[in-house]
Amino acid sequence: MINGQKAGRRLEAQYAASRILAEAMTLEEATPRLLSEVGGAIGWRVGDVWVVDEEAGVMRLVAHWTDGLDTSVFETASRDLTFAPGEGLPGRVWERDEPVWIPDVVEDRNFPRSTFATEAGLHAGFSFPIRSGGRVLGVIEFFTDEALEEDEELLRAMDAVGSQIGQFIVRTQAVEALRGSDARKSAILESALDCIMSMDHEGRVIEFNPAAEKTFGYTRDEALGKEMAELVIPPSLREQHRAALERYLETGTGTIIGRRLELRGMRKDGSEFPVELAITRVDLPGPPVFTGYVRDITDRKRFEQELREGELRLRQALAAGQMGAWTWDIAGSAVSWSEGLERMHGLEPGSFPGTFEAFQQDIHPEDKERVLGAIRAAVHEQAPYHIQYRIVRPDGAVRWLEARGEVYRDDSGTPLRMSGVCTDVSERRDAEEVRARLLEGEQAARAQAEEAKERLAFLAEASRLLSSSLNFERTLQKLAKLVVPRMADWCSIDVPEDGSIRQLAIEHVDPAKVQLARELRERYPVDPAASEGLPKVLRTGEPLLYPEIADELLEQVAEDSEHLQIIRDLGMISGMVVPLVARGRVLGVISFVSSESGRRFDADDLELAKDLAARAAVAVDNARLYQERSNIARTLQQSLLPPGLPEIPGIEVAARYQPTGEGNQVGGDFYDLFERTSSDWIVAIGDVCGKGPDAAAVTGLARHTLRAAGIREQRPSRALELLNDALLRGGSDRFCTVVCGRIERSGDRVRLTVACGGHPLPHVLRASGVVEPVGEHGTLLGVFPDPEVRDVTVELEPGDAVIFYTDGVVEDRRPDTVWEKRSFSSLVQHCAFLGSADAIADCLEREVHRLHPEGPQDDIAIVVLRVTP
Amino acid sequence: MSDLEVRVQRKDGEDAAVALIGELDISTVDRVESALRDLEEEQIGILLDLRELHFIDSTGLRMVVSGDARARSSGRRFAIVPGPDRVQRVFRVAGLEKRLTFLEGEMDGHS
What we know:
The structure holds two protein chains of two kinds.
Chain A: H1 3-23, H2 27-42, E1 46-53, E2 58-66, H3 72-80, H4 88-96, E3 100-102, H5 114-120, E4 125-132, E5 135-143, H6 152-191, E6 195-199, E7 205-208, H7 210-216, H8 220-223, H9 228-232, H10 235-251, E8 260-266, E9 272-282, E10 289-296, H11 298-320, E11 323-329, E12 334-337, H12 339-344, H13 356-362, H14 365-381, E13 385-392, E14 398-409, E15 415-424, H15 426-466, H16 472-483, E16 490-497, E17 500-508, H17 511-523, H18 533-540, E18 544-546, H19 551-557, H20 561-569, E19 574-582, E20 585-594, H21 603-639, E21 651-658, E22 669-675, E23 680-688, H22 692-712, H23 716-730, E24 736-746, E25 749-757, E26 763-765, E27 771-773, E28 791-796, E29 801-805, H24 824-830, H25 837-851, E30 860-867
Helix pairs in contact in A: 1-2, 1-6, 3-5, 15-21, 16-21, 22-23
Chain B: E1 4-9, E2 16-24, H1 29-41, E3 46-49, E4 53-56, H2 58-74, E5 78-81, H3 85-93
Parallel strand pairs in B: 2-3, 2-4, 3-5
Antiparallel strand pairs in B: 1-2
């Protein structure tokens, strides 16, 4: 037999034994069946049961089984033999209290029956004890017709059967003993009803024993001759009694004779109490005499009442606690259930089969192991039995039960009985499950709310970022940085440019990967006509969501196998591409890709991306508009400045120009420097009031007029007068303030002639560090027909510098500063002793910024001319 | 943002006093301009009070100059109560001190 088969057979044998022992009432009943079924199950041919005769101190054969082998001789011999401890196979097992295996009994030296065994053709044999309470009560042996090596597993299994039988025996003995004692008790009860009273056919007391005296409170004398009914029967029952007596006398039969009745008796003091009564007719010639045996069963009744009440209470408690009670007779394997438990299992009360198997059947298959394990642990390891498990009712409903129980043992620790209660905890478990699910749901909801909050915060941050700068390229790059890694592992922003697609920004946490991506883009530029991904979104203006980036998609996008491999290696898992759309135009595309994080984008993520893109698109659009305007303005502005500064031999020139305010507003300051002749130059600086195109136009007019006038006129004052006329003619009511100067070189000498029309005076910074303004303010130009403008001439030495400026330089709006401290002279003073016109110009610029930390409010123009030393 | 308060005081039959408090620049001139024009329509003389003005730029200057020009051309009075030095300096540099009508001393009622 192969192992699996063997194991199966062993199990079969054990089940058979359990079944037989559960059903049998006596060992005699069980024994033959045990031999045949167990033997048959394990495939052996012959079985014997030997039992210990304590008195004689030997073992005798009590049962024999064969499955066909002719063992008559063997059996007869066995029955004639007795074995002492240690003798033969049974004796050995008895003495050692453990199973013994004989591979071939014919060869065995301690097998007295070997001849008979040979005759019957028996070879291998084994025996195991039937034990209980630490004692061997008997043994069972099995033989078969071939020699076999010891099978440890089989021995173990049979040993367990032996223990089961032992327990069975104990149980049956206990039951018998109980029955015996019951019988004995009955006999005692029957014979010893305490009060004995006799009455004649008229119902008068003729006998009244001491017990009766005590019980009823009458003395014998008091009782004799009185009607029994009057003495000891409560008034309400007397008529019944008398009538029954009469009936008996008439008919010879009655229901009260010879039966034990429970009635109420009455004491002398009139108090009633429960009694048990038996009446017999005394067999004597003459009129009938009746003897009544009466027992005061007050106590018993009370006890019974208490018991009943206790039972009721228990039942009520069970019902209230929805508990059921159970008892498992471990030895016999019978199981009894209370009605409550039956109902709990969905059974009609009384329909539970009462077997351990039936109990097992109801257990949910997934919990069976656990329950049986717990029972085993309780029985064998004295572990507390407290377990929750599922049962399946006949109608298929699944309920959760919570069972608690205790194992009752005899003095030797052998488990006799296990009993306990079960409660249906389905609701509780359901409630817990519901609560757990609710909690989960709540946590999920809270997590969702947190996510939503996080998204809003993210959008708010993005909005702030987007509105922080009008340089849209830089803004978009910052946006890509914001997105990674909060929203995605990769973010790229692409814009259409001249028919192709330019990547404006690409971000990833790892700069090496960013570099790789850039190179990749360079090698494989995106095809605007591609049917998927970025180009598609750019064309259609519709967002795309790729919850899972399938390889097919990569294949479509890749240009060759190498490209495919590289993008595969990027490990992109999920992606979204959203368009930047403003005023109906697709300005660009933002792509979000997840890789390392393993994130998979869903509809919610796409909504966030779309929201972000919408905000970015508006910002980009605005920025672009602004940039266009700025470009125009700048272009315009640039045209108002000299194309380049001329080289003046022996004179360094530096100019600084900073228009302020909005980029799309052209400034009103201007300056110019141009050659008049080979030996003189004109320098001019001016300020047209206001800004915007109108002011720009006047600025242009001023500059060009000055150029023309300066070249024509000798004196700067004349140029200014001509400018004044031109402005008045021009029609604009904008005025301007101008300084116009002429620089003459003759040899080493440099002469400067300056005329000023309402403008801050230029300052001379001598090489010695002395600062002095030059010229007179005059009247602003373009308002009055007769402005005052006068020429003033200074000589400049090598190392001297002259500085022209516009009033944005020194403008100060703060109400409480004192002007003097912030005059231009003091500014220039700070820049003394610097070695070049540029240095001076830089210094002045720095000073300006120091004065206006938040940035100057007005345009600034500075021109520095320095005679090289 | 620049701050400017324009206070107009009128008395029947007399010049209106327009006091400017704060900064007069490109962002605040419009308000003053419209106040002046309203008064001009009524052919009232204007007294521009700059004592509490602490800043004036070229746009402000321009507004004053054009106000003065309009008054001259329609024969109305346009006088200015000088402001603090930083304001007056602007007029000085522009050569306007002699071209505009600046009142001297304290204001002590209309004359």
